[in-house]
Amino acid sequence: MTQAVTQARSVERIITGQAVMDGAGVKINRILTQTLQRRLDPFLMLDNFGSDQANDYIAGFPSHPHRGFETVTYMLEGRMRHKDSAGNEGLLTNGGVQWMTAGRGVIHSEMPEQEEGLMSGFQLWLNLAAKDKMCQPWYRDFNGDQVPAYTTPDGVAVKVIAGSSHGVAGAVQRPVTEPLYLDIHLPAGASFEQAIPPGHNAFIFTYQGAAQVGDKEVATGRMAILANSPQADGLRVHADAATRLILVAGAPLNEPIAQYGPFVMNTQAELHTAVEDFRAGRLGEQAPQ
Known about the structure:
By secondary structure, this protein is mostly beta strands. The protein has one helix at 268-279; strands at residues 11-16, 18-22, 26-32, 43-51, 61-66, 69-77, 80-84, 89-92, 97-101, 106-112, 119-127, 138-142, 149-151, 157-162, 164-165, 168-169, 180-186, 191-195, 201-208, 210-213, 216-219, 222-226, 234-238, 243-250, 258-260, 263-265. The strands form seven sheets. The protein has a seven-stranded antiparallel beta sheet with strand order 1-22-19-24-17-14-13, with no helix packed on it.
């Protein structure tokens, strides 16, 4: 099944991430920040972590709460152990994905299981609709070989983390936000096309090489926000040299966003309730698989 693009989206603007520290002192490139949440609704945050210096990541992310959204952790290289308040536990390794729906509340930790070598990957925050924010938590780990993948005739290797690409259904499907999350590896001289529904907000992030989208080059470590146009039906990307990038797209919720750290709700009153529930020990309930 092919997904021909008749009119490709253009690049609206290119974003340089911000160097931040999170968790217990992990160095992160925060690409999608709060200032972009409205423009890239339903996505709330995208962090890229990557270092071969243990001091940059070894402290990890000790126990912390979440409510009102989903987290998608994609490990390119390294080993990260997840534990949560429900007793769920998993080890993310090369190519693995952890998808967690925090819903009404989860307390979890994400700690490196390595003391040297390269650790790199992404964490994406995906908002939940108001009607789903207090849903029962859900969690699933996918090993690298459990994430659906395919290779095009041009040799482009695609991992389908969420959504669907060229007839291949991803590891996770979500009916409301309809997220598409692809990891795309283009060999030198290759091109790739992907259909994106009009109205969906979309972006790419190049983490190796340089991606050519129309007349714009998206260099390593840069995000390109793809312009919304009623006529444009997808992405067309080319690479002169070997290039790796992620493509993320989703249907906007068009709802109010109220955020206080790890809590994302729709109103300030709901945020106050989330903080009080956490302080009273009511937030870390079981998250059955």
